[in-house]
Amino acid sequence: MAEGFAKKYLNNHFIKSAGTNPQKINPHAIKVMEEVGINISNHKSTLFTNDDLKENDMIITLCGSVKDECIIKNSPTIEFRHWNLDDPADAKGSLEEKINVFREIRNQIEQKIKLLKSEISS
Asked: What domains does the chain contain, in order, with CATH numbers?
């Protein structure tokens, strides 16, 4: 979801989604992003290598312990940010309750991306 919003709002920047444990895009994420007109069905999360990480100016982690697993977080040349969001894939309850969690996280990510855009544009 973050990649989808980043590509929408930060289209003058190189955006790449990665993970410490890359997985297929969750179908609930695809659904809630389609609700806001963004198709992420072809997005893929990949595992960053040390070389990939060195080619970036900013790394943003989103959920839980990922910030502790990020191998570049103490780099003097890369800005590191952690957005401590709940992982919507961990949501419990009925299908509708899970979808609502994905919507909540989607909305939080969009707001953070918009704020980031205003910070780096000024």
From this structure: 2-121 (3.40.50.2300)
